[in-house]
Structure formats: structure tokens, C-alpha cells
Amino acid sequence: MLIYLDSTVDQLAAENPVEIEELISELLLASIYGRHLILLDRAICDWAKDSLNLGGREIAQLDRLKALYSQRGTLPQTALSYLKVETGETLLTEISPHKYSIGHRAFLDANYVRDSNLLIEHIENDGEMLKIILREASRRHPAPTYAFQALHGGGADIAACLRVEIPKRHVVVSIADSDKVAPNDKTSVTKRNLEREAERQTFVGMVCETPCKEAENYIPLTILRTHQQQLCPEFSSIDSLETLIQNQDVAGKSDCLWLFFDLKKGIQAEKLDRIQNPPVAAWLAQKYQLGGRRFSDIEISGFGDGILRQFLDCGEAIKDFVKFMKTPYWATHFADFFDLVLWYFASEKKARGN
Fold it and tell me: Do the beta carbons of residue 108 and residue 26 sit within 8 Å?
């Protein structure tokens, strides 16, 4: 995460020197170990070098951060998320969405300089998919790189896991499957439980849901078609599904059937025919081109529960997916979401030897 010290030299010099030395040292070590993106202005770097008892590698990192300040000094003005550290007693405050401030004493009592954490429902498949996406998205991100530790939320237990993580006072982002059948569908029980935990106290991080039904929906149908023999050789509805998707009128962000199609199970007619919410039912009727029919009149099967694992095991499909991330479709539906996630995990490249 972008962590910057928003204090003058005079303000730092007026505080307890032991606390300030610990503060600067902790920030420098977080930068050296590549845990966060640390921003110190030139005047603070010069003062710390002359006034504090720092080690050789810390002084070297001060020199490096001073040299980089001309490139990074304006990052707080453009970053979607940051933690601002000020001198004093101020407790953690969210000053605007995803932007936080904290006094140096509360900062030293917490663990924000430790690893950031990504809490997800399924660490193996979902975690691997997110690593592919974040690795590629980071190439076009203002931060030099990103760093996080993935934590397994265990599906429905993810809210309980968040309850454990928030009191540890480190950066934690939780991403849950939306499980929506339409963009205007209700929020899932899992997301509501996460929000309930998040509202108990201010913390640095966020709870969010995928901008689609689940992780499988990041994969475009074109890749499943191109690599059908490796990924889903027995899938028999590819032509019907492709025709349906190609005939879509997309009005804008999230207004896309493929984002909410159940790749694992396909059309679950009984479930979809029972939907009573008028806006959701109307969206589904339009996108599935029902024209007076019911979902029980349409037969499009799913790719099976293992489709994400099969995709992740196919190197050629992953190569095509990386190319797909440069398309207007990706920019419309996913880029903003992952841009924000990356700001929470923004970091410095780890110094050599650490």
C-alpha cells in the first residue's frame, strides 16, 4: 500500500525522538523488504539521515527514496488508496473511501508495515487466477510492483476469517464471489456477512465482490472455444452459447450476460424461472432472449466444476488470457476493479539481498 509521512521536519523534531526513529526505521524496512510503497519527501530524508541513529541499509534506502521523490511525490494526489501518517495521537480514520490517516503513535502500535493480506474464498484456484490477473495488470499500474499474502477464507467461513484478521491491524482486502445472476441482483449472503464484520470497526482494507458471478467469468468464451479440446472436450453447448453471447447488446459496464452466466452449471432453469424481482427478471429475459419462453425451454449446460482448474493447467490458454486483458472488453468490465485492488497492495521492489 502507498504509505506516506505527511509531516514537516519541525513537527518530527518536536516529537519523542525514540518514537520518530522507530517510525522512520519501520517505514524504511517496509520499503527495503518490498512490503509497501513508502513515500518520504526530500527534506525528511535529509533530516533523518543527519539526526537519527539509522543503520547502513536504512541510510541507503533513504538516499534511494529521496532520489525517487521527484517521480513519486504526486502519487497521493492520484492514488486510489493510501495510508497517511501524521505526527500525534490521531486514531485511524477513513478520510474518504479507501484513503486513511493515522497518528504516528497509533501507527507504531499497529502492524500496517507488515504484509498486506488478500482474503479469498478458495486460495488454490481463485488465488492462482488472481495472481495471473494482478501480475499482468500491474504492468500498467503506477506502483512499481505489488505484494500480498493470500489467506484462505474457506467459502462461507470467510466472514469469520475477516473477524480474526481485522483486529490484527494490518492491511486486509477480502474478495468474495458475487454469485449474482444479473448486475442488479441482490448482494450475496457472503458479501453481507463480510460487510457486517467490516462495519464493526475502522480498518485499512476493504470487502468487495467480484465484478462478475465468480472467478470463472473472467475467462472469455473465445478462449474456451479456442482451447476446447484441452479444457472442455465433452462440452456440447458451445455453438448455442456462442450464438447467444454474440447476439448481445451491451449498454455499458456490467451489462453483459457472460459476466453472470453460470459457467459451472449452465442454465439452471428451475432457479431462474423462480426469480420474482422484476428488474432482475427483465434483464434476464432480455439477455437470454426469452421472447415469452421460460428458462426450462432452453438447454445450455455448464462446463463443470473443474473448468477453472483446467484453465489454470493450460499454459496456452493462459497466454491467450493475458492478451485478452489488453482488450476494450477487459477495460470496460474489470480494469477499474483490479486497479483499486492493486493500490491496496502497492509496494516497492524488494532490495537485493533481502
Answer: yes
Q: Is the pLDDT of residue 250 over 80?
A: no
Q: How far is C-alpha 3 from the geometric centre of its chain's CA atoms?
A: 17
| Distance separating alpha carbons of residues 215 and 126, to the nearest angstrom | 6
pLDDT cut 90: percent of the chain above it: 89
Length of the chain: 354
Tell me how far apart the alpha carbons of residues 123 and 318 are, in angstroms, rounded to a whole number: 18
Contact between 339 and 137 under an 8 Å Cβ cutoff? The reply is yes
Whole-model pTM: value is 0.94
Assess contact for 348 and 37: CB atoms under 8 A: yes
CB of 24 within 8 A of CB of 52?
yes
Instruction: Name every residue whose Cβ is closer than 8 Å to that of residue 345 and which is 6 or more positions away in sequence.
Output: 1, 116, 118, 134, 146, 147, 148, 171, 173
Relative orientation angle of helices 56-72 and 42-51, to the nearest 10 degrees: 170
